[in-house]
Amino acid sequence: MKKSALLLSVLAIGACSPTDSGSLANSSETSVNANPLPSWNTGPSRDAIVDFVQRTTTPGSPDFIPVPERIATFDNDGCLWSEQPIYFQLAFAIDRSQMLAAHNPELAENPVLKALASGDEQALAAVTEHDLVELVAATHSGMTLEEFQDVVANWFAVTRHPRFNVPYNQLIYQPMLELLDYLRANEFKTFIVSGGGIDFLRVFAEQAYGIPPEQVVGSMGDTKFEIRDGNPVLIKQPGINFVDDKEGKPVGIARFIGRRPVFAFGNSDGDLQMLQYTAGGDGARFMGYVHHDDADREWAYDRDSHIGRLDVGLDEANERGWTVVSMKDEWAKIYPGEGLP
Amino acid sequence: MKKSALLLSVLAIGACSPTDSGSLANSSETSVNANPLPSWNTGPSRDAIVDFVQRTTTPGSPDFIPVPERIATFDNDGCLWSEQPIYFQLAFAIDRSQMLAAHNPELAENPVLKALASGDEQALAAVTEHDLVELVAATHSGMTLEEFQDVVANWFAVTRHPRFNVPYNQLIYQPMLELLDYLRANEFKTFIVSGGGIDFLRVFAEQAYGIPPEQVVGSMGDTKFEIRDGNPVLIKQPGINFVDDKEGKPVGIARFIGRRPVFAFGNSDGDLQMLQYTAGGDGARFMGYVHHDDADREWAYDRDSHIGRLDVGLDEANERGWTVVSMKDEWAKIYPGEGLP
């Protein structure tokens, strides 16, 4: 794969706690298990996680899960990183559209792009992850995958989040990084299952979360194989092929992973079907929701939010005794960086 | 996941050399590297494989490949197991269609199924892997994924190959099992990238090859998420969603794996685009073809065969110096079982 120097340098800046899914996780197994989840305050969520991991990985335990079946799936937006004031991929799409429209008068007249570029709050709030993936596919069709990766990596390098003034890929959740490490140290295989675009996610997921491209499931457009100037490449196509949200999440899991997860974490109604599917298997299961209730350090939103609405899912989680994490009460730190909450 | 006792017992019968992709491979690393590829005769293919692995895994070597980029992809039919006298999945599809037609007069009148059931050689030879996946999707739509897995597992348990009179999943290639082990012992991640049906492949690939479901890429129908009798399940749909053959192979690789392979093996023109895509990356690369030239112990076919035709690919392999394995001269043993060649 041709990775440009830019992409490599951006990935090297990257984010924190990059644990390779394989050997590194194993070598740090002892230390991670000696003091798991240091940024999680003592409380019901931390207890439930540690209890689940110990029950399912102790040989002879009635809840023991064989290693190949230790599949753990995580939503991304609002679960592994922040999603406010707008989905981070939407910020990317707006920036890119404006840049492209400057050289393309036709694109500049596109009503969706105009609405987005205007910054109109209602227009922005109405954009779904589906719209986003379609918009990104439309504005980047004809590019090779590698060219698109460079574009995304460059955007991460030069853009800052409006509230925290750091690159977007630093606004990942320290407690969730520790959870990923803890699961991998106990031989769970960690996957992202996101409504966001798979090609966008794969640019930063390995460095940010230690989740390699082959363990990222997301929404996607089509690609086409071509020999271009003698080089065999994959070209991004307009249109959408698969929406990995709501009912699409279990479908994406079956398609990409081929096994029902035993552990799943989300933060919105869009994750409910993934959690239901996880809960529906035999044996020990863990279903968790991150609840955004910390307006001071992050954001507070749930039932009435356009972004990451958690309403039906919150009721079902409470009824069924799933873990609901209070960011405010249960997370000692939100982001890994110095000077961030 | 609800796995029936039947499925579990069939998997336990299974095939040979089941190496889990993770920990087992690591624990056997020393012994595998001390005597790699015992069923490969000394010759150009064995030399090329060992040379590639040593060059790309020795720290400081100019050809060193970091562990996360050690992606190895394998075709299945004719590359990891036999594909004669007909694709094994076609034998499954015919058996199933006949069984289903006995209870479904409409299906019994389907001209494709009638032609297949007649055993007419021309009709069978014209069936592509695409047709197959479509046929299997059509005849199994409405089932849950788990029900389908049970059907496939049962078929493997009760059916025998017409020439060798053993279960089909014992006709896997011993030298390729050793190659998979050798690569994994050197921290390559091994994937199947097959034109065959992904749900069919995943029933036997883990036990047969040590390749877990999440590392199987194949052709596929659609699935739909439903709550059925209170259980969240995935239902197989009619129709075809993705054909993982020819130009589809690099597309499937990009979609499922998200990284360009550095090592790829096939046996037919249907694998050529995968090999071209692999060859097109920077740095050290390995491209290989299994050449079926052993009519005594297996089968001999290439340029004129309907199944597994190797024509354009053979020319390109010879021109570009890719490895072409003579089964007759370079493989000391074909199948793992006692009493088999």
Distance between the termini of chain A: 37 Å
The residue fraction in helices of chain A comes out at 40-55%
Most strands sheet of chain A? 6 strands, parallel
Q: Give me the secondary-structure category of chain A.
A: alpha/beta
- Record the strand order, biggest sheet of chain A: 3-2-1-6-7-8
Q: Mean pLDDT of chain A, rounded to whole units? A: 90
Strand content of chain A: 5-15%
What is the β-strand count of chain A? Answer: 8
Low-confidence stretches of chain A: 8-27
Which two protein chains have the largest interface (Cβ within 8 Å of the partner's Cβ), and how many residues from each? A-B, 50 and 50 residues
The secondary-structure element order of chain A is: HHHHEHHHHHHHEHEEEHEHEHEH
Number of helices of chain A: 16
List the helices and strands and how they pair.
Two copies of one chain form a homodimer.
Chain A: H1 5-13, H2 23-27, H3 29-34, H4 44-57, E1 71-74, H5 88-101, H6 105-108, H7 111-118, H8 121-125, H9 129-140, H10 145-158, H11 174-185, E2 189-197, H12 198-209, E3 216-219, E4 223-228, E5 231-236, H13 248-256, E6 263-266, H14 272-279, E7 286-291, H15 312-320, E8 323-326, H16 327-330
Parallel strand pairs in A: 1-2, 1-6, 2-3, 6-7, 7-8
Antiparallel strand pairs in A: 4-5
Helix pairs in contact in A: 1-10, 5-9, 10-12
How would you sum up this structure, described in words?
- Two copies of one chain form a homodimer.
- By secondary structure, chain A is α/β, with parallel strands linked by helices.
- Helices cover 43% and strands 13% of the residues of chain A.
- Chain A has 16 helices and eight strands.
- In chain A, the strands form two sheets. Chain A has a six-stranded parallel beta sheet with strand order 3-2-1-6-7-8, with helices on both faces. In chain A, strands 4-5 form a two-stranded antiparallel sheet.
- In chain A, helix 1 (5-13) crosses helix 10 (145-158) and helix 10 crosses helix 12.
- The longest helix of chain A is centred in the N-terminal third of the chain and has 14 residues, at 44-57.
- Mean pLDDT of chain A is 90; it is low at 8-27.
- At the A-B interface, helix 12, strand 4, strand 5, helix 13 and helix 14 of A face helix 12, strand 4, strand 5, helix 13 and helix 14 of B.
